[in-house]
Each structure stands twice: as structure tokens, then as C-alpha cells.
Design a protein that fits this description.
It is flat and about 45 Å long. The protein is an alpha+beta fold. It starts with a strand and ends with a helix. Strands 1-4-7 form a 3-stranded mixed beta sheet. The longest helix has 12 residues. Helices cover 24% and strands 33% of the residues. The chain has one domain: 3-Layer(bba) Sandwich (D-tyrosyl-trna(Tyr) Deacylase, Chain: A).
Amino acid sequence: MRAVVQRVSRAEVTVEGKIVGHIGRGLLVLLGVTHADSEAEADYLAAKIAGLRIFDDESGKMNLDTAAVGGGILVVSQFTSTAMFAVANGRRSMTRPHRNAPASSTNTL
């Protein structure tokens, strides 16, 4: 499982001209899930991402998590990042089809 996390002031996902997901301030997560990933790993990663203290506190120090700033988390399936890692390491068929992905990879966050 691979996640690329970006702190954003706003983000949205558009499919065929329709906005299917959006947030204001928060985190955009590009998530790649492989056939070898478990629901426990997804839960661990979700908790880790939600707990990232990467927002400024009143002193200007990165000390607040997404919940503390009232932010949102937008998770976008990004299997290509996992596939590129697998190809670079000589592996094939690493990505997991969406219908078989752990439910928590989309539900926990």
C-alpha cells in the first residue's frame, strides 16, 4: 500500500465533468492498494494519515492534525503509483482491482 499525502487549501475530483468529491482545507491522499495489502494495514495507514500533525498552530509550528483544524481528507485511488513501484522492482500484477480492495481503504478515512 502506498499513499502520497498533500496538504491542500481545497481539492476536488471530477469525473466526466461532474464533481464526485471535494474538500476545503485538509489532505488529498493518492492511495495505491495492492493484492497483498490487508484491512489491518489499511486501518493502520488511515490512522497514521489522520494523525499527521502538518498544520500550523497559533505559533506557526506544524503541530495540528486535520481534525484539529476542522479539515477534510479526500482519498483518490491511484493504482499507478503502486504499479510503477512494482515494475521498478521487477514485480507484476501488484495492483488490486477496486472491487477487491480492503473496504477500510476508502471507509476508514
